Amino acid sequence: MLEDGQVIEGDLFIDCTGARALLIEQALHTGYEDWNHWLPSNRAVALQTEADGPAVPYTRAIAHEAGWHWKISLQHRIGCGIVFSDAHMSDDEATAKLLAENPSKPLRDPWIIPFRTGRRRKAGTRMWSRSGWRAASSSRWSPPAST
Question: Which among 18, 29, 82, 105 could bridge 142 via Cys, Cβ 3.0 to 4.6 Å?
Answer without folding.
Answer: 18
